[in-house]
Each structure stands twice: as C-alpha cells, then as structure tokens.
Amino acid sequence: QPLPVFPDGFLWGVATSAFQIEGAVAQDGRGPSSWDAFTREPGRIKDGSDATVATDHYHRWPEDVALLRELGVGAYRFSLSWPRLLPTGAGPLNVPGLDFYDRLVDALCEAGIQPVPTLFHWDTPLALEERGGWLLRDTARRFADYAAEVAARLGDRVAHWITLNEPAEVTLLGYGLGVHAPGKRLLFEALPAAHHQLLGHGLAVRALRDQGARSIGIANSHGPVHACSGSEADTGAADFYDTLTNRLFADPLLLGRYPEGLAELLPGPVDEDLRVIAEPLDWYGVNYYQPTLVGAAESTGGPADGPGDGIADGPGAGFAGVDIPAELPFALHEMPGRERTGFGWAVVPEGLSETLRILRVRYGDRLPPVMVTENGCAYPDRTEDSARIAFLDAHLRELHTALAEGIEVRGYFIWSLLDNFEWAEGRSQRFGLVHVDYTTLERTPRASFHWFRRALSAQRAAGAS
Ligand SMILES: O=C(O)[C@H](O)[C@@H](O)[C@H](O)[C@H](O)CO
C-alpha cells in the first residue's frame, strides 16, 4: 500500500549530528568538546568506543552528499560543531572549520538539497564546559555570539536554522544523571542548565534574525507520558515526569512562562529572560521516538517489571535506558505488548500523532507549524532492514493522520542517514538508512534507503500530477 500523498512543498529529509559522524576531532584546529572528554573516561561508553573517527564524514562528505542526492531528499539536517568553528567556544572563527561547512553547504545547494544546520547538538566546547558549561549564564551569551558569527558566513545559503537539539537530554542526562557529557549527577540542581540553554536559544534567535534569517526553529524531544494506573500516586508521577521532560522545555518557548513551581528553582532574572526565551519561532521541531509509561517511585506498573528496577523504557523524552535514582519521584515501566527495536525501544507509531495532538491542545495558536526533526529506530541488520521500513512506514501514516486533522506539519527528517556514534551506546546501536563498516568506513545503503528513495519519488510524482 503506497504511502498517502503529503502536501506539495512538504520537506523530506534525513538528519545527522557533527560529533556522531565527523571524526577528525583534532584536525584543522578543532578544539575539544565535552563529549571528547567524556568518551575518554573509562566505562562511560558501553562498547568502549569513541568518536575520534566516527564515520569519518569530515573527509567523506562528498560521498555522503552523493548518497543524499541519490536518496532524493529535499533537505539535510546536520549540526555545526561549535568547537570546530570556535575551538575555545569564543573568539575568532577557525577558518579551516568554516571552510569545511562552506564546502558542505555549497555542495548541498548544488545538489538542490536545502541545508538545515543545528547550531548546538551536544558538543559543548570543553573550555566552556570546564568553566561550568550550561550551568553558567555566560554560556548562553557565548552561544548567541557563535550563532551570529556563523550566520554572517553561511546565512546566504542556509534555508532553515535550528538553534538547539534536545535541551532536555543535555539537562537531564548530562547534568542531572551524569550518563551523558559532562557526566554531572546533580539531579534537580541541574535545572539552571535548562534555563541557560533556553536563554541561549532565545538570544540566538535574535542574533540569527539580525543576520537576516527567516526560518528558525528548535528541535525538542517530545513523547506522550502515560500513567501506569489510574491511582493518584501514579498519575501524579506521570504529570511530574511530563512536566520535567516535555513542558519544562516547551512552555517557556511557546507560552512565555515556566510550568508552575519551576520558575522559583531557576536563576534569575527569570521574567526578563522569559521574554527572550519566548522569541517567536517560524516553526517548532519535534524529535519523536516513543511514549513513556510512568508510575509512582514505588509503583509496580506492569506485569513485566517490579519496583526498584527503575530501568527507563527508552526515550520518548528524558531518561532513556537509565537507572532512575530513588530520589526521583517516579518509576518508568515497560509498555506491555509492544514490538521493540534493536535498542529495546517500544514501537508506537500512534504516539507520534498523539504527541502532535497534545502540542496542539496545550499550545493552540501559540504552536507554530511543526517539523518532525527526528524519528527513526536502531536495528542490528546489516542491509535487509525490513523492520526499519515497517517502522518508518507506520510513523509516516500516523503523521499523515495528524495532517488530515489539520495539524500543520511542514516536514519530516529520518534519524539517521548513516550509522553513527550513538552517544553512551557507542557504535552498538545502528540508526542508519546506510550501513557503515567501522573498519573500512564503507557505506552500504540498506533496503530502507531504497524504500525511502522510492517513496520520495512517488511523492514527487503525485505532486507533479
Ligand atoms: O534524539 C537524540 O537523542 C539525538 O538527537 C540523536 O543524536 C540520537 O542519536 C538519536 O536520537 C538516537 O538516540
């Protein structure tokens, strides 16, 4: 059954990020990032690997642009490496770093592919991290300065800008639980990192606008949060989890206020900052992977699990596959009866349309048009990845349902073009439409790559008719 036809001009793309694909970490003046340091700490990365080479995209980008051209996407979401452009996070741009992105952006434009760069996808310059990173207000200002410099150089060819990728994950996993860089386990003392990222976002939006940018968004992770029972304790815990992982990072942007009870926990002047944070966006990016089933800390939500195992059941948003400390007032439960990806994440396509409905109900006309900036799945298959095809097919049908209900969705980006360095999982989880041999760095398009290529040409044909 062919996919339903999406509106004319719908933006079809794939996504990657700099630290996960580029490699060449010490080449051409690139400075170290918080993740370079984190991967060197023993035991931080599940398979002991690191991203010093990753997929070597830094040298193989022409081959990867050729894959994008063959795929037939209209847009490519990638991230700019702040430490490659500003080795210490501030000061003059690193010319060889800028040249790299200049060449990549030119090649994309020449191939008729819209460049969609993310300014920050987790690789904080180590020099800034060592000073406190996003716990420090000044990092927000440095981020805006970096945005202004980059926009002055690439803005003439960039179609759409993304300020931040998933400030929730950086805050909760990096500063809250310490399972991601910078590896700090501050629990609720991590909240200033949320505020400063959002402030950095708002300041960057203004800096980009001053440079003439006309299409700016953010890529937030979102997913429905369900309570594992109707009990007051479980629904209360689910509300708390929803506030921490969804609302904390959306309400300030779209409503100009923090969820009740949170603003008091944040470093000021919060009200003044909220005016900056709520700088209007042209569109709102949603990274969706799956919903989360939540219960009270002592709850025994599902048959499959008991109290205290605390193993998070994959990331809708928030605590992906992480031990939940007893101090946190919730427990995560396995979604019963669901197929699972190779990463153990539940396959819940209807969670995508549910997420969009929740956003529309919550934010009404304050919600700008939406782009699905990430959706995808990890499976171990080398090239015959029928499970990935089924996953993407089902999610796209759900997305079309939301469109048919009048939710304005302007684009969809598959995570990811290539297998890549999956953060604390290292190379053990493969999300690519293209298989990467980490020994030879050879790229081999999977069955899903050809499925998506055919689906895009069918969309173009339908659009033309
Ligand atoms: O959503 C995220 O966590 C990041 O944006 C990506 O960098 C991940 O690699 C991907 O999502 C798979 O986990």
UniProtKB/TrEMBL annotation:
<dbReference type="Pfam" id="PF00232">
    <property type="entry name" value="Glyco_hydro_1"/>
</dbReference>
<comment type="similarity">
    <text>Belongs to the glycosyl hydrolase 1 family.</text>
</comment>
<dbReference type="InterPro" id="IPR001360">
    <property type="entry name" value="Glyco_hydro_1"/>
</dbReference>
<keyword id="KW-0326">Glycosidase</keyword>
<dbReference type="InterPro" id="IPR017853">
    <property type="entry name" value="GH"/>
</dbReference>
<dbReference type="InterPro" id="IPR033132">
    <property type="entry name" value="GH_1_N_CS"/>
</dbReference>
<keyword id="KW-0378">Hydrolase</keyword>
<protein>
    <submittedName>
        <fullName>Family 1 glycosylhydrolase</fullName>
    </submittedName>
</protein>
